[in-house]
Write a structure and sequence with these properties.
It contains nine helices and ten strands. The chain has a six-stranded mixed β-sheet, with helices on both faces. A four-stranded antiparallel β-sheet has the order 2-1-4-5, covered by helices on one side. Strand 4 and strand 5 form a beta hairpin. The chain has a domain of 72 residues. With 267 residues, it is α/β, with parallel strands linked by helices. The two termini are 35 Å apart.
């Protein structure tokens, strides 16, 4: 590994296990998970439903405590919710009574950031995600994709070094999903930060990621890591054999069969 700042380890997950109590039974969600993410790297967690991908995001963000092991972010042990982290969910989670600009400003209000400064940044972010002119629209007046653009702007408002994304585009139609993925990569390239992205879509993982961490069914573990060393922006149709080789290798890792198209997910 070179001395390039982008090769610096930013997230370290060490021997992590998480156990939940459910109706009197102990359910092991994660077991002995180990992974490292470099600063400003874009990585994806890929695995079947219920394998602990969301739980792992919550542990990294300090929202769920592990039963054993630890997480370090920027060389500091995570012991509670991280202030320096933006998070996106599958649902936009916008407040329906607040306009777009006011939804984006929520983190500034919670953190005590100067609201005049924050509003200038919020308007610039809304323009960057393609919502100039919709600053005063309510969520009900926006499409699903537009609502997720507001959520993305909100997650970026405080310019966090870490962005955790839990299937943020999973509920969108295929075309909008591809557009959002392309916009996300463009934003990430212009303003680098460490991204941990959860998806069920192998196609999406290959299109977006520097590395793909494949997880086993519950209890979740990291079973294999795939490097995607193709230049961006990526078009599966132009990646040729490299795309098909990755697709087959990931399917095989997941124990899936090969009777699938490139758009298949693993729900």
């Amino acid at each position: 590994m070179t001395s390039n700042p982008q090769d610096e380890r930013f997230i370290e997950v060490k021997n992590l296990s998480v156990v939940f109590q459910s109706r009197g039974d102990r359910v092991t969600a994660l077991q002995d998970v180990n992974l490292n993410v470099r600063r400003n790297e874009f990585v994806t967690l890929l695995g079947p439903s219920g394998c602990g991908k969301t739980t792992l995001l919550r542990v990294i963000n300090g929202l769920t405590p592990p039963i054993s092991g630890e997480v370090l972010v920027g060389d500091k042990r995570v012991v509670g919710p991280l202030a320096s982290c933006g998070m996106m969910f599958q649902a936009p989670t916008l407040l329906k009574w607040r306009k777009s600009i006011k939804n984006v400003l929520l983190p500034a209000e919670a953190s005590g950031m100067d609201l005049k400064v924050a509003e200038v940044r919020a308007r610039a972010l809304l323009e960057m995600v393609g919502l100039k002119g919709f600053e005063n629209s309510y969520p009900r007046e926006l499409s699903g994709g537009m609502q997720q653009r507001v959520s993305l702007a909100r997650a970026l408002l405080l310019d966090p070094p870490l962005l955790l994304m839990d299937e943020p585009f999973g509920a969108l139609d295929a075309l909008t999903r591809d557009e959002m993925g392309s916009e996300l990569v463009s934003i990430w390239r212009s303003n680098p930060k460490t991204v941990v992205f959860v998806t069920h879509s192998i196609r999406e993982a290959i299109s977006l990621s520097d590395r793909i961490f494949v997880m086993t069914p519950r209890p979740g573990r990291i079973t294999k890591v795939f490097e995607v060393d193709e230049p961006r922006p990526r078009d599966p149709r132009k990646m040729g054999d490299r795309y098909n080789d990755l697709l087959d290798a990931i399917h095989n890792c997941l124990g899936d069969n090969k009777e699938t198209q490139s758009s298949k997910t693993i729900d």
